[in-house]
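Dear colleague,

Thank you for sharing your sequence with our group. We've completed the structure prediction you requested, and as agreed, I am returning the results in plain text so they can be pasted directly into your records. Please verify that the sequence below matches your submission; if there's any discrepancy, let me know and we will rerun it promptly.
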Amino acid sequence: MNTANQDITKKSIYKDLSLAKDGHQKIAWVKRHMPILNAIENRFKKEQPFQGKRIALSIHLEAKTAYLAQVFASGGAEVHVTGSNPLSTKDEVVAALIDSGIATYAIHGASKEAYEEFLKATLKSEPHIVIDDGGDLVQELHGNLARYAAHVIGACEETTSGVLRAQARQKQGVLNFPILAINDANCKYLFDNRYGTGQSTFDGIMRTTNLVIAGKTIIIAGYGWCGKGCAMRAKGLGAKVVITEINPVKALEAKMDGFDILPMEQAAPIGDIFITATGCCEVLSPKHFGLMKQDAILSNTGHFDQEIDVAGLKNMAIAAVESRANIVTYTLPTKQQIHLLGNGALVNIACADGHPAEIMDMSFALQALSAEYLLQQPLGNEVYDVPRIIDHQVAYLKLQHLGIVIDELTEHQAAYLDSYSL
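Please find the predicted structure tokens below.
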């Protein structure tokens, strides 16, 4: 190991560097299936757009995220990485990142206190660009670790929860640097949130429970793009789907899409499997647990593990046992038993491997190009949409890889569409 890598190892926080070989293998596999990021990496190597810049990155720390970190490093950045949830961190991927010369601070299953130390270690680099998933880095840079924010040019936020936190800061006038809402880009929510979440959520549920989906009643809380993806996949697998919502327009949309709509208290007694996908807290709480049938299964596919009130479940239970890897069975005072998957964390990554590589190829391409945009375009302290040109660039690159050619407007057609006189 060279001197530079020895320094990286000394400053990093990890479980076991001997796992690096397995981590490299996983990164190599996803890299084969992320052609858009491959193309961006090749350009970054030539142009070095991040030369002299520091990037702090916090996304679910598995192989696809590791490759994004390597793409930034290939563009000249000094990259510091942590995970956005200890339960989704893969120790072998951490080891591989460190072995490739990228400072990384993460351990699977770490305590809340340790997780906060990982955030601090990442931000001590005093980053120029922040790549966030859920808003924890941004939160710390506005609070306890504001002393590390002096050089921040801007941030890119991956998920709904983080965008909502950033927008709340903007409304209150306390957002200290610009944030690009990656989550709200077409090439993110239309594919990542819908197709990625839909497939990977059921991957996690089926892999963990080894139970059939067909014939069961699936209760999905929230009919945003993640909820839509889950509902689509549940229906395709032969389940009866019930949606719970607080938004009247989304509830009406779910009804028009062919799903039943119920308040959670009415849905609780009939559900076989519950999936929360709202970005809110206590979507499933003690008032619902006591209504559930024997052997109901609880899972969360929203970013934070607060959607299911796990503390409330533990408090009301008279017994808890791990009945299978990633499944804790709680016995309630009424004697019925309900099963919690992945301790209420993101089921698709705590219990499986997260979104498919081809899906994250688009999302992480948006991250890479948006981070580059932040260096090129001075912005005020607001939350911004990803520029349409970047969104379309990612879509065109994806189409190109798929061998798909689409029409283009002629000059006359473009002029026609731009004219107010038809």
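Summary note from our side: The chain has two domains: 3-188+355-402, 192-350.

Kind regards,
the structure core
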